[in-house]
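#struct-queue
[09:14] JT: dropping the first one here, sequence first, then the structure tokens:
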Amino acid sequence: MDAQGRGRADNIDPADQWVLNPNTGEYELRLSPSGPQSAVPGPRRSGSGRPAGGGGRGRGAGSGHAAAGGSVRGRADGADHDAASPSSLSSPSPSSALSSSAAVPGGEVPGPRRRRGAAAEEAASNRRGRRPVKKKSKAKKVLLWTGGIMAFVLVGTAGAAYLYLEHLNDNITSVSDDGASTGGFSKDKAINLLVIGTDKRTGSGNAGYGDSGSVGHADTTILLHVSKDRTNATALSIPRDLIVDVPDCQTAQADGSSKVIPGTSDVRFNTSLGQDDRTPSCTMRTVTELTGITPDNFMVADFNAVKTLTTAVGGVEVCLAKDIDDPDSHLKLSKGTHTVQGEQALAFVRTRHSVGFGGDLSRIQIQQQFLSALMRKLKSNDTLTSPTKMIKLAETGTKALTVDSQLDSIDKLKDLGLELGKLDVKNLTFTTVPVVDNPAEKVKATVVLDNATAPTVFQMIKDDVSFTKVKEEAAASKGAAAAAAAARLKGAQSAASAVRVQVMNGGAPPGSAQETLNWLQIQEGITKSENAGNAPAQLARTTLEYAPDQADQARKLAAVMGLAGTALKPGKSVENSQGLPTMTLTLGKDFKGAGVSLTAPTTVPDTVQKSTADKVQCAK
């Protein structure tokens, strides 16, 4: 918005002319009607270069859209979009569409027009003593604007980007997902967003950090899972030094062709990006290979986002349990609480030698603490109700952001931001992929999966299980069904030799029915079993159907197979090849192999480190 071009006095911040209307929850452009408006010789152009405000029809540049775009710079500032920082993450918040008053060239700014007959209706209303319209409380309006703080800042500022529209679209850099994603998030499903921070040192003031020649590896990676009902979320950090298999990766080339970059085995996770010209889509494929979870979208941000975002919000309060003087990250702070921004904030999230055990896992924890503090700061102050701060955050966030081709516009980012904005900060859990030191190394430099707990963490995310306590009423609504399912597992169990079951394949890998049959007969002594081939339909989850008089057999087979109570389906029996009544075990898409338990985990193992974003923690 160009205030001076509209006849306004000098030294007026354009953002201050946007006012939050408490009755509608929308920002409105308020221009004083006392000042004359300058005539506009021709149609003004918005940040996207299109005519704004309908100037060709005799109106001034009065649309909120054009006003927002008129005074902001484009991409000519040379901001870097390749490197990323773990802290350039954000919390989304609900946003409002722009409302504006049209300016008349050479005249006054007219007041709002009323409907025909409005005056008569108003007079009649006054005569009748009509009850005034109940207004929404300011507290509820504030919650609408701040309820999304518990996700990451870049998502939040982009989600709140109604203020700039076309100009902010010009800020966004997008690259192809190369078919590695699900095709983009859905409003009616759980969301898996991959946030990648690289160690590339390009960008203003960043050349002196670490390896200036890095091609930009996946230095910090977080898989953000948001539950289907939006009541909880899990931010899973993936260590850069985790030994993984990087799969073959098909990538789009600048000339429009496609190239397959060969995969590598037993390498650091961070080489899934940058190494051998790998793109973020290669990191997506590696995450899928590692966890079994396919991300919906990805985001990459640069070092400058940490500095500019923390400055835009007035600094972030962090806590130290001891004095820190780290010459590598240039962080020097005394024990206690401090408000950091800019270079100091970047130094805080980069430090590792002075905290914990001095390795990457310790740095992951301090980054998680920083992100939690950033979210609390945004939630507790007036950032998201201030037009000036919102403009700064939106401008900074979109410039620091590189997204996949499914998130290449403000509208798409806004939709994602609104979904993430439904979260409550107390139900966002930060955790890290469970790992142990690499036993193949004498000098411990890398880590490998902790196979005792990592599969449980991955399965909980895939099953959309909360890592933290959600609303009690939500849990209570599921209580009756859960109790009924648990009851099916209680009671006497028959001997293995008495269990009679037919096994069908209903979506498991080919050969699973025979594999299971062999295992049941040879390993578990359930000899009265047979392969019944393919099921008439595929199932997402394995089921066991049985007649009432077969409940003791069902409980025995459930114990052997590791079936949850929800997998047991009371019904009727069928006849086996000898004409005898038998149960039916249908292997679904969740089947992972004979002898692998199918009981979905419901609690996080005690050994898994986790924290919620509403808790203040001090770096040790």
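[09:21] JT: and here's the second one, same format:
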Amino acid sequence: MSDLIHYRLEDGVALIGLDREPVNALGQSLRCALAEACERAAMDPGVQAIILYGEHGLFSAGADIREFGTDASFAEPDLPSTLVRLTEIHKPMIAAIGKLALGGGLELALACGYRIAEPGARLGLSDINLGLLPGAGGTQRLPRLIGAESALNLILSGEHIDAERARLLGILDRIAPSAEALLDEARAYAQELIDCSAPARPAEAWPEPTEGLPDDFLARYRAEHEPRWKSRLAPRLVLSALEAACLLPQEEGLARELALFKEAEASRQSKALRHVFFAERESARIPGVSADIPLRPISKVAVVGAGTMGGGIAMNFANAGIPVALLELSGSALDRGLTQIRSNYEISVKRGKLSIEQVQQRMDLLFGTLDYADLYDADLVIEAVFEKLEVKQQVFRTLDQVCKPGAILATNTSSLDVDAIAATVSRPQDVIGLHFFSPANVMRLLEVVRGKATAPDVLASTMIIARRVGKLPVISGVCFGFIGNRMLEPYAREAHRLVLEGATPAQVDGVLTGLDLNMGVFSMLDLAGVDVNFLVRDANRAAIAHDQSYCRLGDELYGLGRYGQKTARGFYLYEGRNRKDDQEVVALAERLAGELQIPRRPIGNQEIHDRCLFMLINEGIQLLDEGIALRASDIDLVWINGYGFPAHLGGPMHYAEQLGLDKVLAGIRHFRQALGEYGEMWFTPAPLLERLVAAGHPRIERV
């Protein structure tokens, strides 16, 4: 017997424990050992029932994702055929689910006739998050267990549900009173099944998965949800697999599911999403910093500034059970901030995400103050005041005087020089940038900006606390705009310039949203505030350098008081949330083009795509070359989680690799020539891009 399986026989029950730490990933080696153990139990006349469980508590988090897209994915015994064989064993088989049964792990449990879980277990078919569909019977067995509609919603959401909801849906038969009692309860359950001569598999709860639903349910479902799927392939394949479950015998449905899974696995979208999955894990690794470095304890946090950003930052820590002191200069500002925080929580109550008691627990962790002296015992202080260097430097001078030794001092600046802020204190090694994205209590991304003096333990400690409060931290070096906003500059520059040359804001945005970006440049600027964008740009014109006539359109709109959605007029007109094109903006662009002597012409969609995206990519490659970004995949995470770049394209760096780096370089060189003086000024290929193409290197990495 393999060391991946623990097998023992107790009173006619075979206990088969999965032992491939850390999560019992169902790779080829574990599949082989599992199949062998189950055959042994099936052939042993002394075995009357079988229990599958996780030897160290956790049942299984699913397939070994590293195998996808390789020969190992379907190396014998493959998971689909292994699970089919399990369903053919003529002895009751119980899945005892501890902690997790996700993806292939839940499919393994579904192949068992009976299921029991610990109270804290989480279950789900989250394959959709990797651009896949359940490929080992999940789309066929689940609808026959809980009905087509519930199965479809669970699979398409990728949601992890708790044990009680799983029981109510019909996925679980029982819930053990505790995690510690799970295996004992499973043994008792097995004995009950033996005593009553229960069948190996009970009758299907939903032999007709669409029973009770309209005849055109699946067609209606497609029509209702397809617009939200945009160009994503996996949801459409899931729906096709569910159709097979409803229309075909199970054996044929399983064959159809497997074919659809292989189509998804081979797709660029799944490859991109798997890239994102591994990128998130790699982003936690800090080169040159040991994983066992002693961390600075963070049990109390302070936030300076109770505005929208400061309040949102404070909520993250309160949500994680960490006390937060929130400082403002005036009582009225502090009251407004605390009122807004409570209002945000009350929205969650209305949506059923929090109880009133939970809101009060969080509010009790927030302590408002007008006195810097009250921050003396904070382990981490985050400054979230007005985005002006002198203002932030003054805050840090005060913090230097009042904060205890060893406290981490963080600035939430989105573009300013963290080193210049650190230079104002006597302990620059304790200073770091923590750039939260707005709304800070919602957005997952956190740029962790490492200053030249930032101590390694400060960096490691902030990365840990960031994940503890539910953020995805990505390390950046110090430069204007860090990773995200620095890349935004050339991306938005080309959008502005294209409008001066003859495109319209709606055309530019349409090309970008057609690529499945959440928003185009101009709708994004209207949402964030044309005024905010102007003030950031105006404060950093020296850092941006070169001629900036391309942004005259934004400057003019700022001068006209057209700040975007907040004033109902920006690059577009707004009636509530409805956006309308504005011919006045087009006329303004025509006038400015005349003043700047920019020839206007019809602009094709491909040119819009190439100029915006190639300049975005080029800047990202330059950031990597400079060492501002540690990895190309880190850049992808920033743009997916902070700027709405579609995850199923893998982020801008992965997208560039899929396009071909030679194509990107050729496009930049083309526009450098074709756009005359403007092209000569702005379309300079990143030296790293040129080196990669010259070497025939398909991946973006330092060479």
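[09:30] RK: nice, looked through the second one.
[09:31] RK: The chain has three domains: 5-265, 301-476, 484-694.
[09:31] JT: good to know. The first helix runs from residue 28 to 43.
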